[in-house]
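QA checklist item 7 of 12: single-chain prediction sanity check.
[x] sequence parsed
[x] length recorded as 164
[x] structure emitted
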Amino acid sequence: MKLYDAHNHLQDERFGGRQDELMAQASAVGVAQMVVNGSCEADWPQVAELARRFPGLVVPSFGYHPWYLVERTARWEDELRGWLDRTSGAVVGEIGLDRWKPGLAYEGQEAVFLAQLGIAAERNLAASMHCLQAWGRMLELLRASARPSTLASRAAVQIPAGAS
């Protein structure tokens, strides 16, 4: 059986340089491909490097996660386009909206989400989406906007105790 990991952040420093070991383990259990989602400009080079080191296994994904929007530079859109242009097989993500994280400003999230969605749409690249406590608004934006043919989301759902 082949397995496909649709969402991870293998470039994250918390993996402490164990990527080779983790990739070997993933391959050993049948993972055929994985999407490694970038979160901000600072980690896009690491995402590209993982794709270079593990061709065919890593699908590189470049985007601004809503938790990191305060870090974006004035040229972030040009940088994003550049990484997509230079990296074979790249997709867009992780992009989205977040009204859940305490202390995170919602202001600006929609504009950045729509800009990234537009980049994905104009290139017809898949987009990996993050959405917490903003599903209604995200659906409104998706319905009203140009979008790529493929969207993916990792949903976090809380099931009440005793529910079946």
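[x] summary fact logged: Residues 3-153 form a domain with the TIM Barrel fold (CATH 3.20.20.140).
[ ] second reviewer sign-off
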